[in-house]
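FAQ: What does a ligand-bound record look like?

Like this one, built around NAI:
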Amino acid sequence: MRTVVIGSGSWGTALAQVLQDNHQEVLVYGVAEAEVNDINENHKNSKYFEDVELNPELKATTDIQCVKGADIVLLAVPTIAIDPICHQINDLLDKKTIIINVSKGFHPETNERMSEVIRRCIDEDKLSSVVSLIGPSHAEEVVIRLLTTIDAISLNNEDAVTVQNLFSNQYLRIYTGNDEIGSELGVAIKNVMAIASGILSGLGYQDNTRAALITRGLQEMIRYGVHFGGQQKTFMGLTGIGDLIVTCTSVHSRNFEAGYQIGKENSVENFFKNNTKTVEGVRTAKIVHRVAKENGIDMPICEEVYQILFNGKLPSDCAQDLMIRDLKKEF
Ligand SMILES: NC(=O)C1=CN([C@@H]2O[C@H](COP(=O)(O)OP(=O)(O)OC[C@H]3O[C@@H](n4cnc5c(N)ncnc54)[C@H](O)[C@@H]3O)[C@@H](O)[C@H]2O)C=CC1
Ligand SMILES: O=C(CO)COP(=O)(O)O
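The answer part, i.e. the structure of the complex:
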């Protein structure tokens, strides 16, 4: 099977290398010439992985025509680029293709989940199914082949199993699942929790606070996910608690890092002025705020993150306000 990976950033590169390690036919498509050249000429992607030597067989291109004839297209671009990239490739696809989504978040205007965006943008006769390859996985660790487990989630079990078999190896183990709603909502909202976790660390809070954040954050994710038809048990799995733990506790997480800076400075100003990284939780916080309000879903942690990011509320006040809400039962 021939796979084209769209996006020569950190996750696209790491996942393409998995396929190359598995002796699959794979090509990376990128818009950034420097990243593409670095992969082809130096077997590196220095912008994201400074000292990592990539599999020398891995190749990249800036020619989008490479999508023609692909059996699988893996979209490894930020959520904001999924809609335009799908429209771009739709004209080039010439048979039923498995589209793999790895992005975590929502469409910025329509609030759709990534699978919904892809199904809307790709013609039915060109789409076998959407498979979301998601779970606790920092590219920085996968690219150096550290043991990792993630899910292949799809409404089409056969395609999920195909993706499971293509990507699994000694360092990457893929499970399958079909709760598209629960899984996609879990991996999107955990980014907001990771920002909150970073903020709390930046403010100087330690282990007790992080455990509280992860535990109560998971309850918010369940509340939101179940409201929209996700299964509660999904949140106990890799796309729920698994991804929540890895992003709320890791120095690799860009969402955590953003939060840490905001907490440390007790201000969002410098983050918005200087950030150039993919921090998906920022846009997700805005969408969750809007949707939760419309649907009457209680999301206190997400709401405080929204107030910090978009309403100028002081991070230190938010942490305190969460503590002095009306007391209640845990469950
Ligand atoms: N980096 C990671 O460890 C993981 C990332 N993800 C998710 O994967 C998605 C992609 O993120 P990363 O690879 O981390 O971001 P990144 O910032 O490392 O790379 C993004 C890449 O997308 C490219 N790009 C942007 N717009 C494009 C377009 N229209 N056409 C082609 N290429 C375009 C950029 O040039 C860049 O190469 C995000 O939603 C992220 O949440 C999920 C799991 C792990
Ligand atoms: O989704 C991720 C790990 O599972 C990557 O997290 P960040 O986007 O916060 O770096």
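Follow-up question: can I read anything off the structure? Yes, for example: The chain has two domains: 2-178, 181-323.
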